[in-house]
Amino acid sequence: xxxxxxxxxxxxxxxKRIEIRLNDFKRQKIRIGDKxxxxxxxxxxxxxxxxxxxxxxxxxxxxxxxxxALGEFGNVWxxxxxxxxAVTYYSKSDIEKYGLxxxxxxx
Length: 107
Hints:
By secondary structure, the protein is of the alpha+beta class. The chain contains 4 helices and 5 strands. The radius of gyration is 13 Å and the shape is globular.
C-alpha cells in the first residue's frame, strides 16, 4: 500500500498506529496478523513492514475519529474536525457504499 510521505514518516516513527482505508473488496480480505508493506509515495524505494494487530470498520469519518484518540493517527491533526476535513481520498458515495477500515498496525 502506498502512503503520502507525511503519513509514511509518522508510521516509521511509531507515532501513527492507525491507517485508514476504504473497506472495499480488496481490504475486506485483511486479517489480524497479516503483514503489510507500506511504500513512500514520493520514493517507493522506501518501505515499511507492519503487522495488523487490530481492525475496526466504521460507517463514516466522524464515528471513526470519535472511537480513537486523535494521537493514534500521529502528530498531524489538532482536532477531529481537522482530521475529518483532511481525509479526502475517498468519495462520500464510496464511504457510504463500503465504510472505512481502521487498521491498527505495529512495526
